[in-house]
Amino acid sequence: MGNEVRIFISHYPDQDRDIATFLKNWIESQTSECTIKVFLSSSGSIPPGSFYQSEIHNALIAANLTISLLSSEAAKRPWMIFEIGFELGRNCKVLPILCRQAKIDDIPTPLNTLQLIKAEDASAFKEGLAGLFEYVKPEGEAVERLRTKLNEKASIKCQDDDDNSWSDELDHNEWSHNRKGFEELQEAVK
Length: 190
What we know:
Rossmann fold, 6 helices
C-alpha cells in the first residue's frame, strides 16, 4: 500500500451532503497506515476560484477508491451515473452503498447491476466495506455508527417562502437545506 490514498465520495449534495460529510469525517478519524485524502465536492475540497468540473475530474482520476452513496434520488442523478461510470471505466474500485433506506428496486439500470452494499444489514455492510478497510482500521463501534448513519431516512428541510417557518422534521444535528443554500450545523464524529 502506498503512502497516500485518495478516496472520492460520489453523492447527491441536495439530499446526501450530511451523510457524505459524516462519511468523510468518519474515514479521516479512523486509524490508518497511510495518509488518507478524501474528496467531497460539496464540502471544501474545491478551492474558491477553481474550475469546479476540472477539480472533480482531477479528483476522479487521482482516486484509489470511490464510494458512491446511492439513495433513491441520488441514483437517478446524471452526475452520479457519470462519476460511477468514469471510475468503473478506468478500473477504479467502486463501493456503491445504498443509503437513506434505499432498496435495490429503487436503483435504476445500469447501477442496479453492481453488487450494492446495504446499510440495513450489519454483516453484509461490514463485508461490503472490505475495500475501504484495506486503508482504514475502524475500532470498537465505529462501523456500527457509520452503518446507522447511512441507513437514516432522508430528511430534506425546506424553508416555506410564505411564513418563513421550517417544514418537515428539523433535526438540529443534521444539515438544513433552504432554497438559498446549505448551512452546516456541526456534527461531532466520535
